[in-house]
């Protein structure tokens, strides 16, 4: 009846998708278990000022999708792991269990492996879609209950190389300036990112910075006229608003950035005072950069020297210039070098430490910043405190009243490799989907199938859950309270909008129940108590408290003391490095790990699309979003399609050394000839069956943005 769609209450919470961290007002109808969100509108949050994109506005219905897991499940022994199961009919492979039976089985399997093979035979993937409290508890469980640092999450697949370079260069892995500082920038460089699809509200602020219309009433803002430079192998939608578009060859980014640095040095545009007062290591970087004048690299990058020089001059002269980047920068075997070069550009020109300047890695998931801060990283305890440092370990052993392993753990891809090799035998995966998100999926799925014991905690029977021994039905963002940290370092409070469906439980509760069954005497009454312990573990959050967060709704990190100011613009006077100086690191261009050849003459780039989110587990089950983009497709240059004899909308086969998929091809002049782009959200044609697992040696991030490809017409 129409009355069941009439909203009766409103709840202010957050968007479940990207790192922009939009606040949302949800309008809810119905009573009891029949409650549903009827519509959503943008809340007046610091990050979105009332704006939402299509995902935030229409993507909430997945929480009541009929495939939602509502009962704990245990695998039927006769069904082999990895058997493809209709997520709407999980009982073909699993049987229902009580919570006690499922939790007992989950913990017993992990304990059995720990006793038989030692703590390092276990590993856990936490979630960037969960709250800070859930991330904190998850890593604490792995470290103190499993007894290993084999804990990681999807940051390893997105910005791990950015974080590695930022910690090394400027002592902080987070952004220096919030997105909305673009309104104070004269030059905005967006490199290796497609914010129009992946951070759409951020893209709207970037467009306003070019056209005017941002930050009404805010001093210095609302002026428009910024020069937007888009640097990307694809001419993505922001290209329409750009002053210059540098559509460079997909593995030539380090060379391109070094050419910009070379121009700035050769033409005397460096900020000598800033370099002398605030940095170290410039000479070695300068000597390396001078080897790559734009005239020398043009053939490699595909960008005319005059264009590179023009952009380099504009960036250096600003007066205020800001760099935002995404996974086109980080997902390379030279991803850390890419970010080192970006840091060097900011340091050599003094374009950091003021409004409208700085470095902004656009974080992907809604809480990937917070999950990283909270310690879901194998070599870092909470707040990026190093596992290898005995003093750090001693502090955490005192706080947690538990001994810690002395050596850092394995990363995402290393854990899967170790599972394939029989070294990792048991895993606990909360809200991650490596059977879709990891590179070389045949290999990743082999590793998952080999596990003796796999516990998956999720809201749907994901491709990963199809390998599980025990499946634990968890909470969507709409059913949980907790803190989430957006790409701007803004810690925001999510509030429960809907009741949990069926027997699903909050993630923090499930993690605690497993911890108890593994011998840890946890007794957290709720997320607030977890957050108040988290701030003890994290000096950068030391001035926060749950009560303060409930009162204010959002607090900018770092917040070192209760009476310390929150500062959206970092590094105004110094960097949080040992000597307070930013560090140049010399880099040189390296080729991608797998180059085109006679058999595989083209290049595959993977990424995301506007309507879908990561592996599609949520957006493919959000009816409006799935209706907008229901089928797998790839973007191919019209000249390549003509050569193949395929019309736009026709089918092609994409084949690499690791796999083959078939899907629709769409003509797209925005991709370079010889290059194909596709998203990794389609389970029917999983892009990561094709990608290859070579890692950046520093960030341990796979090279999702480049592998050799063959394309064929399918009749
Ligand atoms: Fe949600 Fe990101 Fe869209 Fe905002 S920009 S509504 S956070 S997906």
**Helix/sheet category:** alpha/beta
Q: Count of DSSP helices?
A: 23
Major pleated sheet: 7 strands, mixed
Helix content: 25-40%
Cofactor: [2Fe-2S] cluster
GO molecular function, one term: 4 iron, 4 sulfur cluster binding
Protein name: Cytoplasmic molybdopterin oxidoreductase
Family: In the C-terminal section; belongs to the prokaryotic molybdopterin-containing oxidoreductase family.
3D structure, described in words:
One of its GO terms (molecular function) is metal ion binding. This is Cytoplasmic molybdopterin oxidoreductase. In the C-terminal section; belongs to the prokaryotic molybdopterin-containing oxidoreductase family. The chain has 715 residues and is of the alpha/beta class. 30% of the residues lie in helices and 17% in strands. It is built from 23 helices and 28 strands. The chain has a 7-stranded mixed β-sheet, sandwiched between helices. Strands 23-27-24-26-25-28 form a 6-stranded mixed barrel. A 5-stranded parallel β-sheet has the order 10-9-8-12-13. A hairpin with a 4-residue loop joins strand 19 and strand 20. The chain is globular. It starts with 8 loop residues before the first strand and ends with a strand. It binds iron/sulfur cluster (SF4). The site of iron/sulfur cluster has 14 residues, from helix 1 and helix 6.
In a few lines, what is going on in this structure?
This protein is of the alpha/beta class and 715 residues long.
Keywords, separated by commas or semicolons:
seven-stranded mixed beta sheet; 23 helices; binds iron/sulfur cluster; six-stranded mixed β-barrel; 715 residues; alpha/beta
């Amino acid at each position: 009846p129409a009355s069941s769609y009439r909203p009766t209450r409103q709840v202010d919470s957050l968007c479940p998708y990207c790192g922009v961290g939009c606040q949302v007002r949800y309008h809810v109808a119905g009573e009891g278990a029949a409650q549903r969100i009827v519509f959503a509108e943008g809340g007046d949050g610091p990050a979105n000022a009332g704006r939402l994109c299509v995902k935030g506005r229409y993507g909430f219905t997945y929480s009541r999708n009929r495939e939602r897991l509502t009962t704990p499940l245990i695998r039927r022994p006769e069904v082999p792991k990895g058997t493809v199961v209709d997520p709407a009919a999980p009982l073909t492979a699993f049987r229902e269990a009580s919570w006690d039976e499922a939790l007992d089985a989950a913990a017993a399997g992990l304990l059995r492996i720990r006793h038989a093979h030692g703590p390092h035979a276990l590993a856990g993937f936490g979630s960037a879609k969960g709250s800070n409290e859930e991330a904190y508890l998850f890593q604490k469980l792995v470290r103190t209950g499993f007894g290993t640092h084999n804990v990681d999450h999807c940051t390893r697949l997105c910005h791990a190389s950015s974080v590695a370079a930022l910690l090394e260069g400027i002592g902080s892995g987070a952004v220096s300036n919030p997105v909305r500082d673009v309104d104070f920038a004269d030059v905005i460089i967006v490199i290796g990112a497609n914010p129009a699809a992946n951070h759409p509200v951020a893209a709207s602020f970037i467009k306003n910075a070019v056209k005017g219309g941002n930050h009404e009433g805010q001093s210095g803002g609302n002026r428009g006229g910024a020069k937007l430079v888009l640097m990307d192998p694809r001419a993505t939608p922001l290209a329409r608003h750009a002053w210059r578009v540098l559509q460079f060859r997909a593995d030539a980014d380090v060379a391109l950035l070094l050419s910009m640095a070379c121009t700035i040095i050769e033409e005397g545009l460096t900020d000598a005072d800033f370099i002398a007062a605030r940095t170290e290591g410039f000479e070695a970087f300068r000597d390396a950069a001078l080897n790559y004048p734009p005239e020398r690299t043009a053939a490699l990058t595909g960008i005319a020297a005059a264009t590179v020089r023009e952009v380099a001059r504009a960036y250096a002269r600003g007066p205020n210039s800001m760099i935002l980047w995404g996974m086109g920068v980080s997902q390379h075997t030279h991803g850390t070098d890419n970010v080192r070069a970006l840091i060097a550009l900011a340091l050599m020109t003094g374009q950091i430490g003021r409004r409208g300047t700085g470095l902004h890695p656009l974080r992907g998931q809604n809480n990937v910043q917070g999950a990283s801060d909270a310690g879901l990283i194998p070599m870092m305890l909470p707040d990026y405190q190093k596992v290898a440092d005995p003093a750090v370990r001693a502090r955490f052993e005192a706080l947690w009243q538990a001994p810690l392993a002395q050596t850092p753990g394995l990363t995402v891809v290393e854990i899967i490799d170790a599972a394939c090799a029989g070294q990792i035998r048991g895993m606990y995966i909360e809200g991650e989907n490596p059977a879709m998100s990891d590179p070389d999926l045949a290999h990743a799925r082999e590793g998952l199938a080999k596990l003796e014991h796999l516990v998956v905690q999720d809201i749907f029977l994901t491709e990963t859950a199809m390998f599980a021994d025990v499946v634990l039905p968890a909470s969507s963002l709409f059913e949980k309270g907790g803190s989430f940290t957006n790409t701007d370092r803004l810690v925001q409070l999510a509030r429960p909008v809907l009741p949990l469906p069926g027997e699903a439980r909050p993630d923090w509760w499930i993690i605690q129940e497993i911890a108890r069954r593994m011998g840890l005497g946890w007794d957290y009454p709720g997320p607030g108590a977890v957050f108040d312990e988290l701030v003890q573990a994290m000096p950068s959050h030391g001035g926060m408290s749950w009560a303060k967060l409930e009162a204010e709704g959002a607090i900018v990190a770092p917040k070192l003391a209760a009476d310390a100011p929150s500062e959206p613009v970092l590094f105004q006077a110094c960097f949080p490095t040992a000597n307070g100086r930013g560090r140049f690191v010399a880099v040189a261009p390296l080729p991608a790990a797998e180059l085109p050849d006679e058999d595989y003459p083209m290049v595959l780039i993977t990424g995301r699309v506007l309507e879908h989110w990561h592996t599609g587990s949520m957006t493919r089950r959000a009816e409006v979003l799935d209706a907008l983009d229901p089928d797998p497709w790839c973007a191919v240059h019209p000249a390549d399609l003509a050569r193949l004899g395929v019309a736009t909308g026709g089918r092609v086969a994409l084949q690499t050394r690791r796999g083959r998929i078939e899907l629709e091809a769409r003509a797209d002049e925005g991709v370079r000839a010889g290059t194909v782009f596709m998203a990794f959200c389609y389970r029917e044609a999983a892009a990561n069956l094709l990608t290859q697992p070579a890692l950046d040696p520093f960030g341990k991030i796979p090279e999702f943005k480049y592998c050799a490809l063959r394309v064929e017409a399918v009749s």
